[in-house]
Hints:
Helices cover 51% and strands 15% of the residues.
Amino acid sequence: LTFARVCGLLNRLFEKTSRGAYEQYAFAALLQTAVEGWDAGVRVETKNLNATDKSSRSAGDVQVMTGPRIIDAYEVTANDWSSKLSGAARTIKDHDLSRIHIVPDVAEAFSEVIEKLQTDSADISVLPITTACYLLVSVLTREKREDALRRMYELLDRYQTDVAVVNGFVEALMEKT
């Protein structure tokens, strides 16, 4: 479970059609594993793939929580990330957050991202899903990477209904790199 092998697995998964399941649940599983060493009571929650933020009363697809309080919210999206800007400030206010994070499938050149973000007074970060996941993989030990992959399987199995997506994950795990 080297950095290169886990990132290679993620690349293969992100190339498959999953309606965003691989991206959301990979990110949630890696983040959950990374925060496990933080203060007791800090956890990561994610929602059903088809649930809206409004219907689930969440600030984003993935949230870092302590007790009932949201510490950070991440919106994982395959859509144009800038479409999320209009509601970001409201989400920050409604959930008493200091910032929000947008994790898109892809983003244009970083200089263009920063230019768009500078027009907004809210503290919004944008990191492409691959970059965000690679960073999280890099901070995990091999043992913790195994935990994250196990957690990803559990999230895929629990929060989305397409058995082919779960099977695709298992098949990707068994592929030789």
